[in-house]
Design goal:
Elements lengths: L10 H9 L18 E2 L12 H15 L4 H4 L2 H12 L8 E3 L3 H14 L6 E5 L4 H14 L2 E5 L9 H7 L4 E7 L11 H10 L3 E5 L11 H4 L3 E4 L14 E4 L43 H5 L2 H10 L1 H23 L5 E2 L12 E4 L3 H10 L2 E2 L1 E3 L3 E4 L8 H18 L1
Parallel strand pairs: 1-11, 3-4, 3-5, 5-6, 6-7
Antiparallel strand pairs: 2-8, 7-8, 9-10, 10-13, 12-13
The structure holds pyridoxal-5'-phosphate (PLP).
Pyridoxal-5'-phosphate (PLP) binds next to helix 5 and helix 6.
């Protein structure tokens, strides 16, 4: 965006970008922030859509007035929202996505299903840049089944090198489990190329799309991915602790059997049989009763995301993050900050990490001024300007506040 010879980006230039932003109106579909507050943490917990309150109130009224009879409708909610996510967020087909449980639990179910479907293969493969819960899940599976967990060294800024990955893939790998967008750097992997590499050696591919669902294209169908899991409380704005979603490719649903057998995953749930028989299709990935109030709360954010369109959101996310990089180079590099995210916009998601030895102090000081980023130990400030509701001028103002703190703290 800005080069050494071009003039610095002014606040007026940021305002002009907002005037030209085709997604500007989506901001009004979210509950307003406190005057002067700036929210740069949409990749941890998205903001609240205006529609969420009324939709949850309706569910509360149904509970109050209809009581258990309301389950006639509620029973369909995990599939209905799963289908909406499939169609408009992750490029899958109806019947391939279902909502329920946390991302950690779905990761476990999916990874264990892969292990069960690959008898004779003893290796699980991942990257050392994966999110902690993903690591723990794989560690636990490896411990339970006496498998070998191979963890690939990964560049903390630019992500996994595909040559390193290629060299590690062999005929013992049962499952390759990776994050599509890295939680710290935001590095974006090529889903199609990586999935193809996994399949070439006979491994199954499981993606964690928590940081990509709602921010970048997630081509599950065309990439050939076998399974994926993702959060709904980040870019999908489903609310704190909103259940996650799991994708299983239709052609693999018969053989990928998850290990947590519960009555909601049963073929005839209300027959109350003593013996488990898995439901047809994606329903077999349910376990117990869905958390209806928080599942229903996911729908407004999914709708906003669908209306905005992933391509437009990804394009705006690239511009917002480019603005952060440009201002960081101009204003913050002289104070000891460095950019720890890919500089090529096509190779990152919608967040940027800045490094500074005193990052924690900066984050505390920003929060005291109503600017909310987040801190990742030991020295990272993560800025996630969600493209649905973040203005270019918000990014400019947040960076300006960081610049003014930098002149005092560093
Ligand atoms: C990449 C990734 N996976 C998983 C999770 C969390 O999973 P859970 O929904 O189980 O808390 C996060 C949370 O930030 C995440 O960033």
């Amino acid at each position: 965006m800005n080069t050494a010879t071009s003039p610095p980006i002014t606040r007026e230039a940021a305002l002009q970008m907002d005037r030209e932003d085709p997604l500007a109106a989506f901001r009004d579909r979210f509950a307003p922030l406190k005057e002067g507050a700036l929210y740069m943490d949409g990749n941890s917990l998205g903001r609240q859509p205006n529609e969420t309150g009324p939709i949850v109130s309706q569910a509360l009224a149904a509970w109050r007035d209809e009581m258990i009879i309301a389950w006639r409708e509620w029973i369909r909610v995990p599939r209905r929202i799963g289908d909406a996510i499939a169609q408009s967020i992750v490029e899958a087909r109806p019947g391939e996505v279902i909502v329920g449980d946390s991302t950690s639990v779905n990761l476990y179910k999916a990874a264990a299903a892969a292990v069960g479907a690959q008898p004779g293969r003893r290796t699980l493969l991942t990257s050392d840049d994966n999110f902690p819960t993903d690591m723990y899940t794989l560690q636990s599976l490896a411990a339970q089944h006496a498998l070998y967990l191979k963890v690939l060294p990964t560049d903390p800024v630019n992500g996994l090198d595909l040559q390193v990955l290629r060299a590690a893939l062999d005929s013992d790998v049962a499952l390759l489990a990776l994050s599509h967008v890295a939680y710290r750097s935001g590095a974006l992997l090529d889903m199609t190329a990586v999935t193809q590499m996994a399949h070439d050696c006979g491994a199954l591919m499981l993606w964690d799309v928590s940081h990509s669902a709602g921010s970048v294209r997630v081509p599950l169908e065309s990439s050939g991915a076998d399974m994926a899991v993702g959060c709904t409380y980040k870019y999908l704005n489903g609310g704190p602790g909103a259940p996650s979603f799991v994708y299983v490719r239709a052609s693999e649903q018969q053989r990928l059997r998850q290990p947590l057998w519960g009555w909601f995953g049963h073929r005839e749930q209300f027959a109350m049989s003593d013996t488990f028989e898995p439901a047809e299709g994606i329903d077999s990935f349910l376990v117990g009763i869905p958390a209806i109030l928080s599942t229903i709360a996911i729908e407004p954010g999914v709708r906003c995301t669908a209306d905005a369109g992933i391509d437009r959101l990804q394009a705006k996310g690239q511009q917002l993050t480019e603005l952060i990089i440009t201002l960081a180079d101009e204003w913050l590099a002289p104070c000891g900050f460095s950019v720890a995210s890919p500089r090529d916009a096509a190779r990152r998601g919608s967040h940027i990490t800045l490094k500074h030895p005193r990052a924690k102090e900066f984050v505390r000081a920003l929060i005291a001024q109503d600017v909310t980023p987040d801190f990742r130990p030991p020295d990272m400030i993560r800025l996630g300007p969600a493209p649905l509701y973040t203005r270019f001028v918000d990014v400019w103002d947040a960076m300006q506040q960081l610049r003014s703190l930098a002149s005092k703290i560093s």
